[in-house]
Design goal:
This protein is of the alpha+beta class. The chain has a single domain, classed as Nuclear Transport Factor 2, Chain: A. About 35% of the residues lie in helices and about 45% in strands. Strands 1-4-5-6-7-2-3 form a 7-stranded mixed sheet. The chain is elongated. The chain starts with a strand and ends with a helix. The model has no long low-confidence stretch (mean pLDDT about 90). InterPro entries: NTF2-like_dom_sf (IPR032710), SnoaL-like (IPR037401). It comes from Cellulomonas phragmiteti. This is Polyketide cyclase.
Length: about 170
């Protein structure tokens, strides 16, 4: 297993395998960022490009939704109206730690701060989730894709009611 904290200096010969691992790391990082950008810009084609054709979704922690295995198209079509119900969102993904099980499977653990803004007449217009993603990646013919997305919410601030309204 190779971890993302290993550097080029840890590998005496920067041969093909080491260069490929660096490229894999960059590609997986790019998928994580496309995930956030697609969500916040409502670019659902970009968001869809992050996933394998079937994806396991685990938002059970903090949201009470059961773990589900769904087609990526269904996941995107279900996510879009929820995210579009907010006036604005901002998903910041940082501190990516990528581990490789083999050449075609990796896990990326990344911090997330997901802010949601929805003006309303019942209180605070903002709700923020602080936590991390533990996403399972697979190499496909189209590049690295998320096969399993898991959000672990560590804490939340603001009006959770605006998020509950978006889930309805």
């Amino acid at each position: 297993m190779t971890s993302s904290y290993e550097t080029a200096t840890d590998t005496p010969d920067l041969g093909t395998a080491a260069l490929r691992r660096l490229q894999d790391h960059a590609d997986i990082s790019a998928v994580q960022l496309r995930y956030a950008t697609g969500t916040d810009t409502h670019d659902w084609d970009l968001f869809r490009s992050c996933f394998t054709d079937e994806v396991e979704v685990d938002f059970s922690d903090g949201f009470g939704q059961p773990v589900a295995r769904v087609s990526a198209d269904d996941w995107v079509s279900g996510t879009a109206p929820r995210m579009e119900s907010f006036a604005a969102t901002q998903h910041m993904i940082t501190n990516l730690v990528i581990t490789f099980d083999d050449d075609d499977h990796a896990t990326c653990v990344a911090y997330v701060r997901a802010s949601h803004h929805r003006p309303n007449s019942t209180g605070d217009s903002d709700q923020t989730v602080y936590g991390y993603y533990t996403n399972r990646f697979e190499r496909t013919q189209s590049g690295w894709r998320i096969a399993r997305v898991k959000l672990t919410a560590l804490w939340m601030t603001g009006n959770f009611g605006i998020f509950q309204a978006a889930l309805s």
